[in-house]
Amino acid sequence: MIYIALFFLLMGVELFYFKVADKYNIIDKPNSRSSHTSITLRGGGIIFPIAIIIAFFRGYVSWELTVAVVLVGLISFIDDIRPLSQLPRFAAHVVAVLLVFYDLDLFSEAIWLLPIVFILMIGWVNAFNFMDGINGITVLYALIAIISFAYLPLNETSLPLLITMGLSCVVFGIFNVRRKAKTFAGDVGSISMALFLGYFMIKTIVESDQLAYILFFSVYGIDAVVTIISRLIKKENIFQPHRSHLYQYLANEMGYSHVAVAIFYAGLQLVINAIVIYSDASDSLSLYSAGGFLLMMTLVYLGVRTFVLRQVQLKESRV
């Protein structure tokens, strides 16, 4: 009953935000870099930091993680309305990641490890944000990650928090996983969710002593890293908006449904996560096997990407 009530509370909050966004013209206008063609309400992902605030008052989450998620969410929401310089955004990310480190007691770990985890965390947050480009992809991918983390016995005490955040994904998904979305997550949604998921990734790896759980983020990770490398080779500014991810080529140039592409990405990650969980349960999961699996997926991805780009070039040559 508590979670049913929470679902309707989150639904009410989201509907109230739509009225606010409509009144103050918080919208996303399509441009040449966009994958959408109509004006859409921006910032519907504000439901994610709001959900963690509710979880905090229910006693489900620490103040450190709450402040971290709300901080990046607040700065990102301001940036959604009125673009900020990189300094306040980066400063908020740094403070948030340090709060995550404090919450997980990482400062007691080897000093050389902290810069590595810090860079990976900052990279993950930005990669997750850049991957938010078509209807449904962010919320479905986040929901798969939350379900996967919730399935692990080591996260049993965090189930109320994970369920709360999962419900916020369901509520947001009702308005976003559509052919014509009513709202987009905005930076407030994608960045706050990225930090939340990054927290659970670090927590899971530390408590399980199993680095292979990084495969929970492999689909996004491979697409993001390969795309960044490709853009660097082309001497493009990797911090500028673009349409160079494989999912964008599939949805835009190849003409596949945004929702279908989003479901494919989330479904593929679900299959990978199931394999990881099964392998760990059967004591066959190791860093070497995970590395081999990651290499295989990367090669498959490169093959698919090359094929799709050739198809795109053929289509353009016929025009």
Automatic annotation (TrEMBL):
<feature type="transmembrane region" description="Helical">
    <location>
        <begin position="87"/>
        <end position="104"/>
    </location>
</feature>
<feature type="transmembrane region" description="Helical">
    <location>
        <begin position="6"/>
        <end position="27"/>
    </location>
</feature>
<keyword id="KW-1003">Cell membrane</keyword>
<dbReference type="GO" id="GO:0005886">
    <property type="term" value="C:plasma membrane"/>
</dbReference>
<feature type="transmembrane region" description="Helical">
    <location>
        <begin position="285"/>
        <end position="308"/>
    </location>
</feature>
<dbReference type="GO" id="GO:0044038">
    <property type="term" value="P:cell wall macromolecule biosynthetic process"/>
</dbReference>
<keyword id="KW-1133">Transmembrane helix</keyword>
<keyword id="KW-0812">Transmembrane</keyword>
<dbReference type="GO" id="GO:0009103">
    <property type="term" value="P:lipopolysaccharide biosynthetic process"/>
</dbReference>
<feature type="transmembrane region" description="Helical">
    <location>
        <begin position="134"/>
        <end position="152"/>
    </location>
</feature>
<protein>
    <submittedName>
        <fullName>UDP-GlcNAc--UDP-phosphate GlcNAc-1-phosphate transferase</fullName>
    </submittedName>
</protein>
<dbReference type="GO" id="GO:0046872">
    <property type="term" value="F:metal ion binding"/>
</dbReference>
<feature type="transmembrane region" description="Helical">
    <location>
        <begin position="63"/>
        <end position="80"/>
    </location>
</feature>
<dbReference type="Pfam" id="PF00953">
    <property type="entry name" value="Glycos_transf_4"/>
</dbReference>
<feature type="transmembrane region" description="Helical">
    <location>
        <begin position="158"/>
        <end position="177"/>
    </location>
</feature>
<dbReference type="GO" id="GO:0071555">
    <property type="term" value="P:cell wall organization"/>
</dbReference>
<feature type="transmembrane region" description="Helical">
    <location>
        <begin position="212"/>
        <end position="233"/>
    </location>
</feature>
<feature type="binding site">
    <location>
        <position position="187"/>
    </location>
    <ligand>
        <name>Mg(2+)</name>
    </ligand>
</feature>
<keyword id="KW-0479">Metal-binding</keyword>
<feature type="transmembrane region" description="Helical">
    <location>
        <begin position="39"/>
        <end position="57"/>
    </location>
</feature>
<keyword id="KW-0808">Transferase</keyword>
<feature type="transmembrane region" description="Helical">
    <location>
        <begin position="184"/>
        <end position="206"/>
    </location>
</feature>
<feature type="transmembrane region" description="Helical">
    <location>
        <begin position="254"/>
        <end position="279"/>
    </location>
</feature>
<keyword id="KW-0472">Membrane</keyword>
<dbReference type="InterPro" id="IPR000715">
    <property type="entry name" value="Glycosyl_transferase_4"/>
</dbReference>
<dbReference type="GO" id="GO:0016780">
    <property type="term" value="F:phosphotransferase activity, for other substituted phosphate groups"/>
</dbReference>
<feature type="binding site">
    <location>
        <position position="129"/>
    </location>
    <ligand>
        <name>Mg(2+)</name>
    </ligand>
</feature>
<feature type="transmembrane region" description="Helical">
    <location>
        <begin position="110"/>
        <end position="127"/>
    </location>
</feature>
<keyword id="KW-0460">Magnesium</keyword>
